[in-house]
Structure formats: structure tokens, C-alpha cells
Amino acid sequence: MQSFDYCTPTRLIFGKDAIKNLPEVMRPLGKRVLLAYGGGSIKRNGLYDKVKELLADFEIYEFSGIQPNPKYDPNVLEGVRLCKEHNIEVILAVGGGSVLDCSKTVAACAKYDGEPWDLISYKVKAKAALPVVDIITFAATGSEYDKNSVISRTETNDKFSYIDPLLYPVCSILDPTYTFTVSKRQTAAGCADAINHIMEQYFCETSTLLNDGFMEAGIKSLMVNGVKCLENPEDYEARAEMMLACTFGCNGIYSLGNSSSLWPCHCIEHALSAYYDITHGEGLAIITPRWMKHILNEKTIGRFVKYGVNVFGIDAGLDPYEIAEKAIEATYRFFESLGLPMHLKEVGIDESRLGEMTRHIAEKEGLENAWAPLTEKDVMEILTASL
Ligand code: NZQ
Ligand code: ZN
Questions:
Q1: Smallest Cα–Cα separation from 93: which of 146, 149, 36?
Q2: Residue 290 and residue 202 share a domain
Q3: Whether the CB of 149 sits within 6 Å of ligand 1
Q4: What residue owns the CA closest to ligand 1's atom 46?
Q5: Cα(292)–Cα(152) distance, integer angstroms
Q6: What is the full per-residue pLDDT of the chain (387 aa) written as tens digits?
Q7: Element (H, E) at 31
Q8: Selection from 275, 115, 95, 279 nearest residue 186 by Cα
Q9: Does some domain include residue 165?
Q10: Residue at 271 is within a domain
Q11: By alpha-carbon position, which residue is closest to atom 8 of ligand 1?
């Protein structure tokens, strides 16, 4: 087991009407609030009005229109400008992972006097950040419980993971009922994203019985509850379990002491999203089974067997390669059963820019050092198989 230093300082308030705690959470952080949200889902489901009512005695400044796959320009720059102009004391992010990621980045950049990209690109280390409180409305990324943010820069086709402990939200309010209005398409994409977060941690060199158990249970829970959420979007228990499983997905708790895999599917998908602005979870559903197939070999087979037997209940007595192939097929069929696109062409990606994207990934992601190393040629084969 590898050594680690772990701390997630975020308070989680979970359950129906958890929002009633909002004023008490916000009061010690300041009166001047930047209310950050996306394209309007929170207005349609009544959450916006509820927040305004609960924070009636705060000074609220609005930061709306944050896009999915949030952009450095205009989203981050606009948020930083608003924080500085209104001397904001605390950011309240209400929405999905994109709203949270953008708000977390803005929180750090607002406390920095130079060009915000200096921080995101790690040229300069942030010294401080505004506090962020969030109400997450979409179970997927785990942004509500991690120190990550993912920001796209359109002109260079970069999708950067900006990671810093200063980005942990102070408090996340999780009410599963706010996810009832998430569309079937997005629910399926969120489920695929969260499953892949666990797989990126499961498929690695060294793990433990403890972590494997957590992760196998996490994947099974997401699979069972993902289906239930699609069948009945207002199934509280299913939405609740899905939400919690997603929350744990990205903050490292599933893989304490494990070696890192370098998250290859995410590295590949982030390039797809950067070039084509596709939905993150859909890209992952397409890539994951092809990546599995590509990396299956003598070195990796043990993890596939464990995954196949413990997640899908495949007969442990079969030949290891038969188990692995059945496990890959079952993963593919599961994503397909959620109604997810399973080919790049279905999300508007053809062969025309594959070369550009694979070069970009090879130059920026360092996947030749992954547990299952990927050269530029390997990435090209995975993408070609995904067409
Ligand atoms: O913008 P609004 O109107 O709010 O609509 C959103 C958006 O169109 C909608 N939505 C959210 N909550 C809803 C709802 N619609 C109805 N009812 C609700 N309750 O869903 C759409 C997608 O939202 P978005 O926030 O983009 O989705 P998601 O949470 O999947 O976030 C994706 C972003 O997170 C990054 C991805 O790369 C992508 O940029 N990631 C962040 C991570 C992290 N911070 O740790 C890790 C992930 O691996 C991921 O890379
Ligand atoms: Zn993800």
C-alpha cells in the first residue's frame, strides 16, 4: 500500500430539504454572494426562487449562463470580473458539475491579480480562494466533494484539469429531489461518468481487498440505481444512492493507498470534448469498452478477471480471457442499455480530426507512463475502434 496524506474538508448536508440549512451555512462566510448557475434549469425547477427566498437578507449578485464543459472565455473570466467588481465574499454554485467547476476556478482566480490562466495552467500556485458553497443538481462528476475543476480553452482545444486543495467546497448541499428533473439522456451520461471514475481507479497496478470491495460495490450501486432512475426519474431512494455514489467518485477515497492509473479514459475523452464539445459521460461510455479491449494482456488480465467475477458475477472457473472478454462485453451492453451513444459518429465525431486529437493527447497527457501504457498509435487505435 502506498503512503498518503488525505483530507476532504467539505461538509456534506444530504437529504430532502437539506437546503433549509443554507442561511446558517452561508452567514459566517459573508454577505456579498455570487450566485452562479447555468442555462436556466434551476429557474425551471423552482430552485432559483427557493435560494432567493432563503437568502433574502444577503446581497446577491448573479453569474448566469455557465456552459456545459465550462469555458475559460467567457465563463471563468466573467466570474472573476464579477467577483472583483462586487467585492464578493462567497460563491454559491447551484447546478451540475460545470457550474461547480467554473465556480471553484473563479474562487481561486478572484484572489489572484494576474492573468487567471496562470493558475489553471499551474504557472503560478494560488495562495487563497474565496469560499464556495454549492447545491449540486446533477449526480455525476463528484465536483461537490473534490478539489478538481475542468476548464476548456476553445482557441487551443485544451480541456484542463485544474486541481488544488483550495478548491474544495466549504459545504455541499445534496438533495436528491433536485435531480428528479435531469433528463434521461443526462442521467445516463452521469451514470457512465461516475462508473468510469471508479474504473479509472480500479484498473491499476496495486490495490487492496478493502478498496476493491468499495469500488465493486460502487459500480454495482451505480448500475442498479442508474437503471432505476431511468425507469422512474422520481424514485427518491434510487436518486439518493446514485447521488452519494457519484459524490465519492472523484475525491480519492475509493483508492487510498492504490497506485494511480493516470485516468486514461478521461485523458482521451477530455480531448474529444475539447475539440467537439460533446457530453463528457457520453464520450466516456464510447471510449471505455474500446480502451478495455485494447489494454487486455498478460499484465492486466488479473484486474479484468476480478472485475468480471465480482461486478458481473461471471463464473470464476472459466478461462481468464473468456472472463475478461465477457466483462468487456457486459460493460458495453450496460452502457448501451442506458440508451447511450456507443459510437463517435453518433456524437458528431468522424475520422477527420483523429490525428490532431491523438497528437494532442500524446503531447499533453503522458499516457505512455500509465499502468497500461498508451502511445499515440494506441490512442489512434482506440479512437478508430470507437468510430
Ligand atoms: O445549465 P443548466 O441549465 O443548469 O442545465 C444543465 C446542463 O445543460 C443540465 N442540468 C443540471 N442539473 C439539472 C439539469 N437539467 C435539469 N435538471 C437538473 N437538476 O444538465 C446539463 C449538463 O450539466 P453539466 O454541469 O455540464 O454536467 P456534469 O455535471 O456532467 O458536468 C460536466 C463537466 O464536469 C467535468 C466534465 O469534464 C464537464 O466539463 N468533470 C468534472 C470533474 C470534477 N470536478 O471532478 C470530474 C469529471 O470527470 C469531469 O471531467
Ligand atoms: Zn468524469
A1: 36
A2: yes
A3: yes
A4: 141
A5: 26
A6: 999 999 999 999 999 999 999 999 999 999 999 999 999 999 999 999 999 999 999 999 999 999 999 999 999 999 999 999 999 999 999 999 999 999 999 999 999 999 999 999 999 999 999 999 999 999 999 999 999 999 999 999 999 999 999 999 999 999 999 999 999 999 999 999 999 999 999 999 999 999 999 999 999 999 999 999 999 999 999 999 999 999 999 999 999 999 999 999 999 999 999 999 999 999 999 999 999 999 999 999 999 999 999 999 999 999 999 999 999 999 999 999 999 999 999 999 999 999 999 999 999 999 999 999 999 999 999 999 999
A7: none
A8: 279
A9: yes
A10: yes
A11: 68
Q: Are residues 255 and 365 in the same domain?
A: yes
Probe residue for ligand 1, chosen from 141, 160, 187, 284 as the CB with the greatest number of ligand atoms within 8 Å: 141
Q: 307 in ligand 1 pocket by Cβ < 6 Å?
A: no
Cβ–ligand 1 distance for 283 under 6 Å, the answer no
Q: Is the CB of residue 181 below 6 angstroms from any atom belonging to ligand 1?
A: yes
What is the reported pTM?
0.97
Element (H, E) at 150: strand 148-153
Spatial contact of 58 and 50, defined as CB atoms under 8 Å apart: no
Domain CATH for 194: 1.20.1090.10
Q: Are 273 and 283 in contact (CB under 8 A)?
A: yes
Compute CA 114 distance to the chain's CA centroid, rounded to the nearest angstrom. Answer: 28
End position of a domain, from candidates 179, 200, 215: 179
**Residue nearest atom 21 of ligand 1, based on CA coordinates:** 68
Residue 165: CATH number of its domain? 3.40.50.1970
Range of the domain at 76: 11-179
Q: Which atom of ligand 1 is nearest to the CA of 98?
A: 25
If one counts the domains in the chain, the total is 2
Q: Under 8 Å CB-to-CB from 254, ≥6 apart: which residues?
A: 198, 201, 211, 214, 215, 218, 248
Clarify whether residues 47 and 134 are in a common domain. yes
State how beta strands 11-14 and 171-174 pair.
parallel
Nearest-5° Cα angle at 379, 357 to 278: 50
136 and 25, same structural domain?
A: yes
d(C-alpha 380, C-alpha 355), whole Å: 7
In-domain check, residue 120: yes
Tell whether 1 is covered by a domain: no
